[in-house]
Specification:
Radius of gyration: 13 Å
Strand order of the largest sheet: 1-6-2-3
Mean pLDDT: 95
Number of domains: 1
Helix content: 25-40%
CATH class: Alpha Beta
CATH topology: Dna Ligase, domain 1
Low-confidence stretches: none
Distance between the termini: 17 Å
CATH architecture: 2-Layer Sandwich
Largest sheet: 4 strands, antiparallel
Amino acid sequence: MRLHEYQAKQIFSKSGIPIPKGQVTTNAEQARLIAESINASCVIKAQVLSGGRGKAGGIRVAKTSQEARELATDIMGMTIHEMKVHKVLVEEAVRIDREI
């Protein structure tokens, strides 16, 4: 099964596993509104079916909602591992204890 991060997190949430607040969007202005609703630093994450998104510049931290809009614009214009980014996940920035 191949899932985008936001799709996997929807499944986690339905199973009672806590996930950071956030939403997926295809629009930079909507990314700004999502970031504004989070009311804290947030992470803008490219949604492509590939690993290494962070190393490719597809995961960035925004400190303001305006910065979230700008980063979403930049990220949605990217190609990561030959895949065009059409969606971003905007979610609250949380401390990472470990990655799996």
